[in-house]
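fold-stage: in
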Amino acid sequence: MTRLGSPDELAAARAELAAAAEGKKRVLVCSTGCLAIGARDIEAAFREGVAEAGLEDEVEVVATGCHGLCAMAPVVVVEPDDVMYGRVRAKFVPDVIAKTVQAGEIVNRLTYGRDEATAHPQDIPFFEHQTKQVLHNVGRIDPQRIEDAIARGAYASVAKMLSGMQPEEVIEEVKASAIRGRGGGGFPVWRKWQASRGYAADERYLICNADEGDPGAFMDRALLEGDPHSVIEGMVVAAFAIGSSKGYVYVRAEYPIAVRHTRLAIEQARAWGLLGEDILGSGFSFDMEVREGAGAFVCGEASALVASIEGRRGQPRPKPPRMAESGLIGRPTHINNVETFANIPMIITEGGAAFAQSGTEGSKGTKIFALAGQVKNTGLVEVPMGATIRDIVYGVGGGIPRGREFKAVQMGGPSGGCVPAAYLDLPIDYDSLREVGAIMGSGGMIVMDDTTCIVDIARYFISFCADESCGACAPCRLGNVRLEQTLDRICEGEGTEADLDTLERLADVVRSTTLCGLGQTAPNPVLSTLEHFRDEYLAHVVDKTCPAGVCKALTPPEPALAGSEA
């Protein structure tokens, strides 16, 4: 490919690539998360089967990112008829090629409802209740081929921006969109961009925080694995707006596919003239690289992340100065997370006002969630801000399996809170979640049924935070351990009512006095469960019983069957 020298050349290349792909038969095989259950064998079987049938010139087999419906993994989609199959095995491939690829028929036993009525994503409740904006290319392109991304619109925002926009105009569009950072805090993105631009410096650094460490969360991983160009494109726009020429994607090493796909995407974007020196012949230059983190949860905090990139131990530092004034190597540094950057291209391409049409008054756009736990349809979910918990759990998720009762949903990861059934109709946005003791976080959503012990859940999350504490400040280093020990006693049948007061007081101290945001939010699971499920705590410390039957020390043994030996 010849390096593109102008926005017009990009438009011409896009038109040519899109025309070549129009109406083509493709078999899209999820080859990221589904690798764990045989996707590589399925992909190989399709390639072999297509070759044996002499269809290589007519049918393309594509290794894609996550299609979203993880409960049906491995997932395969056959285009152009958009037929979706789940729980596919290599032995089923000949049937799919003969009936669907060649004859246009449906293999009913592989569809969502094992019938023709649920053969297409739009007929499956999981997808019917979603609005895919950020995820529109994930599962639809080969993330290792920039041509696929460009054919479906990638880098259009960069072309528009470099065709005459000024940095201040870019920031104004982001301001008009009212987008808030998707990393958890929900701070207005345009304010951070403006602050970063406002400090005089010989260099400003731009960092994408992909250090996703929440248990059960895989939103950032899925984006980088399935559509890394959307993140790179958003970073190019941000770099132009704040005046940066150097960027980093900080991603944990436990995400090898995300690391590999992002590095390859960076190389391809650079070769096409969409990254590096003189992007699209505009005179604007910005380059970037991937830095791998060692998996410390605390490195999701901005100053700890910067310390890690610099080669130092990942520990937060006191503020001020803020990152916008003095961050990486003492230079102004701007940090957003993966999903935030992936939202930016549509804001520039379609306009901030158009973006702001969806969502709630205070939270615009869509939000990606990793839906996990006791729910029928687990997977990657994108819904408009303001969708209710009921919409997600029962609409997208299909409800609770085995006829059990919904009990709560843990939102915001280990720093979030448990939201009970009383708030099933709560519209989800940054502000509403804070009012019930939870946070948006990066988007983890773990559903719990009535077999879950809430006290044990609180113990699990506080144990995670205690283990992941960097130890830089005593309230976090010692306070979370004491919270964990108190919860241990309660689950072991040794707790008292006084322990509940101790938990509340200690949690308040930790929240109020720790050094960084991660320490300040660590007690949220304890405080939210004490607020919403105090009766369950009292059952543990007063009645000495675990209502869910999880805590063994508080669960009486089942009576022996009559006639059995003692």
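fold-stage: in (second)
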Amino acid sequence: MITIGQMEVVAAKPEQNMNTAIEIINKAKNNWSDMIVLPEQVLWYMIWDTWERDWYIKECIDMNQDIIESTKWWITAIWWNVSTDFNKRWYDWRVRKYNSAFIARDGKLLSNWVNDWIIHKALMPDYRYFDDSRHFMSLIDFAKENNKEISDYYTPYEVIIDWVKKSVSIMICEDIWNYKWDYIIDPVKEAMKHKPDIITVPSSSPMGINKDIMRKKILTKQSINNTLIYVNPVWIQNNWKNVFIFDWWSSIYKDWNEIENVVDFNENSNQIIPPAFQASPFNKGGQIEINNSEKILKALIYGTKNFMKQIWQKKVVIGLSWWLDSAVVTAICTIALWKENVTTINMPSKYNSDTTKNLAKQTAVNLWVIYKKISIEESIKITHKQFKDAMWEKPTWLVAENIQARDRWARILAGIAGMENAVFTNNWNKTEIAMWYATLYGDTNWVISIIGDLYKSQVFELAREINREYGEIIPEQMINMQPSAELSNEQNVDEGLWDPFNYEYLDKLLYQFVELRKMPEDILEYHINNELEEKLWIDKNILEYFDNIDEFINDMEKVFRTVEISVFKRIQMPPTISISKRAFWYDLRESQGIIDFNTRRYKRMKERIK
């Protein structure tokens, strides 16, 4: 029998992770399992330049012996750890390190005619949030240095499973992702030269919207003529600005078919050590399908709960307005942290209607969370007077709006959070982040942005999903109402004075600019080729959103310019739970000052249309 050893991998907690791994190995032994496969980087993961601290590395390597000892009494274990060659140096004289897998049985490391117990990762991902080659030497360079063929290092190890000898090759995470020949070698093809019975893949692959579809497609293809065991961890990791969620979904594939899997986020009651999953790779298992909104909700609840654990905090303070974003964040925090740990503050001014104040209060009542109302009207009047006395003139309309935002978030929420020994959350969504529809040093503050990687239209879908899962805790009127900032007389929901955006269209355009890294040239080319609506996934003709082509082009350029010009503001934002194809911050590395650039070809296309 084979055990999929899914487990939580907590950054910079190698001893805790080692104990978790050993406990899971012992559970597998108690269930008479012959072999257990654990995830990639089972002791540490996203610790970035902490990899340059040699004593951390030595501590990790020392823990290998504890894991080896745990395999006594006849079980084979495959796990990840860092390995080093302290006699050799990296290009900049750092100690040379490898991203490696180990295999042991009965208290001893295994070896074959090429490898003494160690397998290095071949493919070094350096895209998006990955930066492997910054820290690790690849198997490709290692083999070249030692004058060996890559395939030699995939020579199988001999193990016993169900009293039958099986040959097992090992590769690590990215090594199976070369399904379109994006790299110069295909490790799976190299391994299959030895015709192994089983290929094991310790992996650490963060969750992403629709990523399961791509991952399944790759694993299915790579399992032809073999059994492929893919093991992913759980928990959250971060790279300073992006908080990534690891959702498991470990699987076993055989000859193009998924024959067993483990449900994502499936942890046990103590939320520390998930049960090891027992499965025979030759028994049919069920496939579980879930929609995107359901998975997003589960991911954000899981990410919020564990981020708070990671920063040693239990309580949150939330600015609860009638805005749907704040209601969704309140619901997620309440589900993740329990109602007694959530305090909501409504902070109206004279511009807030009774309609919206009542909706905010109703949301808090539905969730059974603490609700307080603190008016900002008096403090705003005092600030205006002080500004006029000092500057001899009243604040402009924009400054006046921003004063309200800063008073709410920087003064009231920060102060209440301090009194409650709590932190306060950010309610910003990705559309607002891209369009800079928020106030610097005001509602851009806070400890974590929970929905900052969801466009506004996704927030609406998430609100509906919350109500489907938990009953109508977010008032239906709030979901159906057009959003308005309510910062002046020109913004009033009762009078139909709403935000200046058509989110149905804007979100699709922003997806092209942010996730797909397209430019106005691409969008204009779509239009010229009569494929704009198809590319943007919109059901209407573009002229149903705009009066004429000039208006469409001017709006597109304004959106693109706004996204580019606001980089200097985005870099000051709090960390964000990241689940999309491309999240702001470290996943999307932007430079300041690249503003309003368009190609000469675009300018010619634009003139031709006009």
